[in-house]
Amino acid sequence: MYSKDQVSKLKQAFWTSFGQYIAPQLSAEGLKINWINYRTGIKHLHFKLHADQKSAYIAIELSHPDPGMQELLFDQFKEFKNVLTSYLEEDWEWENGLTDENYKLVSRIYKPLAGVSIFREEDWPKLISFFKPRLIALDEFWCDASPGFEQFR
Q: Pick from 69, 89, 101, 115: most CB atoms within 10 A?
């Protein structure tokens, strides 16, 4: 078991390493970007990277506090499902109206990776090679699809 301090330091070390690794990558628009805190420009719509002691996932997370608005946003993503899949070159899981780890209602479009731990440094290359191409593909998708979400700004 790790102490709270060790957990915090290991997580910080991983995310710092990942941030340094991906920092030279320009966005689809050719701009420098903060990949870890990616800004979609739409409140309650985030690209989320998550890793813990057993698994990881990358997600498009919809967290609008109004369930009806969250549903509308999720439906809009369904309209773009084929486009999104063509950018990602793989199928992702789609879950509407689930409760997250903070007991908040969210909807997620995500890709999980099992059997990895952010606390094992030997897993970091797997995590980085899992996150990086998918995050870049999400950025490329968002560059082209974001005008279709203007009504949610």
A: 69
